[in-house]
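Contributing new records

If you add data, match the layout below exactly. Sequence lines come first and carry their own label; structure lines follow with theirs. Keep one chain per record. Anything else will be rejected by the validation script.
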Amino acid sequence: MLDILAITSPIYIIIFLGYLFTRIGVFAKIEMRVFGKFVLNLALPALLFKTLAQRQLGEIINASYLAAYLLGSLLVIGAGFLWTRRVTGLDATTSTIRAMGMACSNSGYVGYPILLLTAAPVAGVSLALNLIVENTVVIPLLLFMAEHSRGGAGQWRVVGRALKRLATNPLVLGLVAGLCVSATGWKLPEPLLRTAEMLASSTSSIALFVIGGTLVGLPLRGIGRQVVPVVVGKLIVLPLAVFAFLSVLPLLGLPPIDPALRTAAVLMAAMPMMGIYPTLAQAYGKDDFCAVALLVTTIASFFTLSGLLWLLKTIPF
């Protein structure tokens, strides 16, 4: 167990340092946005570009991974929505926002750093595959559901705006550029490769520090039974769903997935929800609840991820 804690502890120590240094005023919380912009607009796109450009296209586009992660996410969205709507009796908008918290992982800020320590050879590929699923299907679908639940006529317009932003997102541009280089077989010039490597190497520590800083000042109202289903759905149900589809799809004819990439998919599903979760929920008046859910899930994920890593090591699948 000590070797498992040796993997997870540095991740959460850096998150805690981000929280501590922001809490005592060494950094202002608004400065976390600057760090976050650096990671999202430069460091992570460079990481994706470098990782994908140095691999064969066949190593990257993995149909089994994409199908299992997408189907697992859709299953959790449906189950989370129905549970919140039918069992707890909340409205459709609230049900959609809570399903969003269960289904959308923090792939870049938390997932990639953890995979870097546990499954380094496939960390970048797993991140790219997750971004494809989350940004092209899961998030647009949830935004459409949220708009539709309010009875507005502009739900397609919301999805259109989301897809338009997606097309100019630096992460997507880095992903597409890396795939294009991979498809052409072009060998990156050494200066360009070294530049991308230097930017990529800064990703994990700054991203984790930003997560800690953004947790400062989150409202603590609403912690209780209503947060628990979102936390359980995100940290337990989603990885179980992805694992189940990873196990079943090869029986239906899809090619078996590499064990390291299979482990990466389950770990990515077990991460806390994306950092922009409260921001996306703000337009629907649910940002306070989502901020509390983000805080609780991030803290709880230390224990669930440590347990999952121990389980994967004890009973490798």
